[in-house]
Amino acid sequence: MTRQSAISAVGAPLIEVYGLRVDYGLGPDAVHAVIDADLTLVSGSVLGLAGESGSGKSTLAYAITRLLRAPGVIAGGQVLLHSGTAAGSAAGPAGTIDLLAADESRLRELRWSRIAVVMQSAMHALNPVITVGAQLIDVLRAHQQRMDKAARVRRAAQLLEMVGISPDHLGHYPHQLSGGMRQRVMIAMALALEPAVVIMDEPTTALDVVTQREILTGLAALQHQLSFAVLFITHDLSLLVELADSIAVMYAGRLIEQASATDLYRAPRHPYTLGLLHSFPPLHGARKPLTGIPGSPPDLRTPPPGCPFHPRCGFAMDLCRQQVPAAVPLGRAGERTAACWLQNGTHDVPAELAVPERGTGAGQQPVTGTGPVPGTGTGPEPPGPAPLTAAVPRGKDATAPDPTRTPQ
Ligand SMILES: Nc1ncnc2c1ncn2[C@@H]1O[C@H](COP(=O)(O)OP(=O)(O)OP(=O)(O)O)[C@@H](O)[C@H]1O
Ligand code: SF4
Ligand SMILES: [Mg+2]
To answer: Is the confidence at residue 184, as pLDDT, over 50?
Structure first.
């Protein structure tokens, strides 16, 4: 892929990842958990990263932020963080810094202030013996030394209100809050220094669906209001279809498809994405059987040869069993990518993988194939022809969380 963003941009690129490779362990026994990842996060946008368990989502996020722990090793690539202003910022006078080459002190400056991370199981990350107010104030004290004590307390209260929690809870310990409230506190903490980027790794997975939706609605409103960019990681593609501007799908350590959320939902180009879309009920239109994807993801210690998805793919050809397909630019301006031999311009593309994108009169290649949805034998109907109307509000429809109510 070129250095141009593969994703249609709503702003300037804020983080650009090129050729990122991450291994667990060294030498011939190393597990390749992230392989040649190219990714662009555009300022003010939500980029969703989806994929089954073990596909490498967290590893990718921790490598980007250099929070990867041993035996994880960054084996190559670049992660460029742009300041977003001509004058530069904490990111450096030139406005761009390679996070993989930055020293620890520079990384410490950037974390929280430019990039904040809400980790997987973050709600258990609060210190149980310190009040949530004191924990918020600690973050402010560490990074905003000119702020006096009274201002820090005011800001901590404001942060809680921002995520829909009454400041009355400032003096409470984490165990006095519900799981949903603890997760909101973690989000408040991430937003404390007004970062340009928030990376969220499965932030709501452990919560019930009602609480999850409340939190995501509030998050979407805050993101709209404060214009930070989000890298949102989840195994739940249906959630991203509603929440994200663009989506990257990961499989066995590789980014196998990237597109705008609308195009990916309506017109997937990779059989794995198609299978994921057939794993949850359509958001609109008639009910359809949930066909899912047969089999399970490969053990990354012994990945299959060729395309890693071939043992589960209903379209697999001989070539697929021998050679790994590279991600190729697709769409009108090459603004989306897919890593599938069917999409390299020399094969007939099955109808279900050539559904026209929004605003185009035709699919990208002649449609002659009639292959089955992977493992299912179902017909070629696209998984989601209806327009996306986000249940989690995006853009101008977003509503701010009500700070007067105490969520569960
Ligand atoms: N500490 C480790 N040692 C060895 N291999 C590891 C380690 N952690 C992860 N891996 C390997 O890296 C792969 C990717 O793991 P990762 O946690 O990034 O996946 P994930 O997509 O975030 O999964 P989940 O959805 O379950 O959180 C795993 O399949 C595993 O093979
Ligand atoms: S490269 Fe082949 S096996 Fe892999 S997803 Fe495409 S068709 Fe299926
Ligand atoms: Mg993970």
So the answer is: yes
- Amino acid identity, position 300: L
Determine the Cα–Cα distance for residues 19 and 37; give it in Å rounded to an integer: 5
Q: How far is CA 173 from CA 108, 138, 140, 183, 185, in A?
A: 27, 15, 18, 13, 11
Contact 84, 14 (CB under 8 A): yes
pLDDT digits (tens, 9 = 90+) for 206-258: 788 888 888 888 889 999 889 999 999 999 898 899 899 999 999 999 999 99
- What the chain holds in terms of domains, given with CATH numbers, is 1-402 (3.40.50.300)
Mean pLDDT of 272-295: 82
In angstroms, rounded to a whole number, what is the distance separating the alpha carbons of residues 37 and 250?
9
CB 67 within 8 A of CB 59: no
State in Å: Cα 52 to ligand 3 middle.
9
Q: What is the DSSP letter of 109?
A: H
Nearest CA to ligand 2 atom 6: 340
62-71, 111-120, 197-206, 280-289: least confident range: 280-289
**Inter-CA distances, 322 with 250, 295, 400, Å:** 20, 20, 52
Q: Where are the alpha helices (DSSP H) in 323-390?
A: none
Is 384 or 52 the better-scoring residue by pLDDT? 52
Query: What pTM was computed for the model?
Result: 0.85
Which residue ranges have their beta carbon within 6 Å of ligand 1? 24, 31, 33, 51, 53-59, 71, 120, 235, 300
The encoded tokens of residue 235 equal 């195994």
Q: With contact defined as beta carbons under 8 Å apart, do 223 and 212 qualify?
A: no
Q: Which of 320, 346, 353 to mutate to test the pocket of ligand 2 (most atoms within 8 A of CB)?
A: 320
Longest dimension (CA), the chain: 69
Higher confidence at residue 94 or residue 64?
64
pLDDT tens digit sequence for 73-85: 999 999 999 985 5
Task: Determine the distance separating the centroid of ligand 1 and the alpha carbon of 189, expressed in angstroms.
Answer: 26
Q: Which residue has the higher pLDDT, 402 or 345?
A: 345
Distance CA 231, CA 46 (A): 6
**Token representation of residue 400:** 């701010």
Mean pLDDT of 160-168: 94
As a whole number of Å, the end-to-end CA separation of the chain is 44
3-state secondary structure of 11: coil
According to DSSP H, which parts of 163-208 are helical? 179-191
